[in-house]
Amino acid sequence: MGHADGSVMQTFEYLKQNSLEGLKTIWPTPSLIAWKNHLTLITYLGLWWFGIFNPAIVYDHLGEIYSALVTGSLVFCVFLYIKGHLAPSSSDSGSSGNVIIDFYWGMELYPRIGKHFDIKVFTNCRFWYDVLGSFGFNILHQTVYEKNRI
């Protein structure tokens, strides 16, 4: 297949020989996480469509949300610092002996709460999707609905 060495011509040859059925063996089927994300998006859009929830509200209160996130993240980092000292998740943790460096760099490489909840993945991958979505809905609200009211 062409994705192995980057050759577009090999991709076309592969598709000519195997048709689109050959792609079924290459691409994975959607997992439960993908279906959960689709269901969340459909619910989000449905709540907006029926007027139950306006996602532009997130944009309107972004200053308050950022203030709460900054304060909450400071408290959360102190919690992770203490957790790294008292109950590290794995052997890839340690202290440099300097409180400021340990607080800045972190005590653990992959901090976890419990067996399955990875804190690093949760904090790095979740919040910006909501913020970007609310920006889009606010632009839609301002351009479409506000123009129709005037």
UniProtKB/TrEMBL annotation:
GO biological process, one term: brassinosteroid biosynthetic process
E.C. code: 1.3.1.21
Molecular function per GO: 7-dehydrocholesterol reductase activity
InterPro entries: ERG24_DHCR-like (IPR001171), Sterol_reductase_CS (IPR018083)
Membrane topology: Multi-pass membrane protein
Location(s), subcellular: Endoplasmic reticulum membrane
Segments passing through the bilayer: 41-59, 65-82
One Pfam short name: ERG4_ERG24
Protein keywords: Cholesterol biosynthesis, Cholesterol metabolism, Endoplasmic reticulum, Lipid biosynthesis, Lipid metabolism, Membrane, NADP, Oxidoreductase, Steroid biosynthesis, Steroid metabolism, Sterol biosynthesis, Sterol metabolism, Transmembrane, Transmembrane helix
A GO CC term attached to the entry: endoplasmic reticulum membrane
Domain of life of the source: Eukaryota
Family that this chain belongs to: Belongs to the ERG4/ERG24 family.
Record protein name field: 7-dehydrocholesterol reductase
Gene giving rise to this polypeptide: LOC120251334
